[in-house]
Amino acid sequence: MIAVLKQGTSQEQIEHLTSWLETQGIGVHICEGHFQTIVGLLGDTSRVDEELLSGLDMVESVKRISEPFKSANRKFHPDDSIIEIPAPDGTCVKVGGGNFVAIAGPCSVESEAQILEVARAVKASGANLLRGGAFKPRTSPYDFQGLKADGIALLLEAKKETGLPIVTEIMSADHLPLFEEVDVIQVGARNMQNFELLKELGKTRKPILLKRGLANTMKEFLMSAEYIMAGGNENIILCERGVRTFETYTRNTLDLAAVPMLHELTHLPIIVDPSHATGISRLVRPMACAAAACNADGIMIEVHNDPKKALCDGPQSLTPAQFDDVMKAVLRVREAVL
After folding, report:
1. Cα torsion through 201, 234, 296, 93, rounded to 10
2. I need a labelling partner for 291 at 20 to 30 A (CA). Which of 136, 252, 278, 337 fits?
3. Over its length of 338 residues, how does the chain's per-residue pLDDT go in tens digits?
4. With contact defined as beta carbons under 8 Å apart, do 130 and 162 qualify?
5. For the chain, how far is it from start to end, CA to CA, in angstroms?
6. Is residue 269 within 8 Å of 295, Cβ to Cβ?
7. Which residues pair with residue 111 across a beta bridge?
8. Could you give the CA distance from residue 149 to residue 115 in angstroms, rounded to a whole number?
9. H-type helices in the chain, by residue range?
10. Are residues 269 and 95 in contact, defined by beta-carbon separation less than 8 angstroms?
């Protein structure tokens, strides 16, 4: 349930309303937009007298929300959320609300020379954040599993040299102490419904990049975001990375329709990962352009200095030169559609 307050409602009135609702066991979420203040009621709202609430002088209207995701719902928060990621130079990388972000880097951190070379290259091409896997979830237990803590240390070294905030994937809540200096914590597709992990991430205030699961609906995707938000962390970036279908020519099927649909359903920013979606490097450019055309808030692309020798996901990785070409194309598309 949401209550839209009239313009001119004082802070004291809002506090009185909040206290009254909380005495009835209702959680309260206040969203102050440019033109309206919305009070979100969380929990069992059946005990709330809707007529009494709507009859208050400060209340303009009361609406019930049927969707199970509340905090992530655009009805709760009509304005786009803008996620701010601090950079080493004191500025912030902004995601959402018209701000477009490019996240690039190797699937996995392999060596100091590799991550530094890639970091320099993607920054020169306009990337805003550096991605790199330190803990790698692999289908086979015999595949390269990542450098783990050493991988994070190398990412931090690349961050120090280039000034790019870093994004890396977490596999277990037990690893959280290792992520204290990581700027954005990524939750991969396989962990999208690892609810205990999501609860722990809800206790942090770090930005979370949440990837859609391999076979999950948009409602399930948003409910996973809700788990994090229920813990108090509202700094969430959604990532569409393709879903598993009967098609075998591509690694997954990129669901670009999810981008505008999610923009209707939620205020959270949504980016697209064409690398994991297609699994084929030559398809990354057209899908990245398509992501920009359908109003995604950013792209996430795998870049390796020598894809043929990559320890992980070489076939879908771009060279630095290919990434530079993609960035130029994506910017032209954004100029055309904005």
Report:
1. -90
2. 136
3. 899 999 889 999 999 999 999 988 888 989 887 778 999 888 878 778 888 999 999 999 998 888 889 999 999 899 999 999 999 999 999 999 999 999 999 999 999 999 999 999 999 999 999 999 998 766 676 566 678 899 999 999 999 999 999 999 999 999 999 999 999 999 999 999 999 999 999 999 999 999 999 999 999 999 999 999 999 999 999 999 999 999 999 999 999 999 999 999 999 999 999 999 999 999 999 999 999 999 999 999 999 999 999 998 899 999 999 999 999 999 999 999 98
4. yes
5. 34
6. no
7. none
8. 15
9. 11-22, 50-54, 112-124, 149-162, 195-202, 218-230, 258-265, 274-278, 281-293, 320-337
10. yes
Q: At what angle do helices 320-337 and 281-293 cross, to 10 degrees?
A: 20
Evaluated on CA atoms 22, 78, 93, 131, the torsion sign reads positive
DSSP-assigned beta bridge partners for residue 174: none
Q: How far apart are CA 208 and CA 223, in angstroms?
A: 14
Task: Compute the distance between CA of residue 209 and CA of residue 226 in angstroms, rounded to an integer.
Answer: 13
Residue type, 270: I
CB atoms within 10 A of CB 218: 18
∠ at Cα 325 (323, 331), nearest 5°? 100
Q: How far is CA 121 from CA 126, 127, 272, in A?
A: 9, 9, 21
Whether the CB-CB separation of 48 and 1 falls below 8 Å is answered with yes
- 14 is written with which tokens? 């809002």
Q: Which amino acid is at 181?
A: E
On the CB side of 81, CA atoms within 13 Å amount to 28
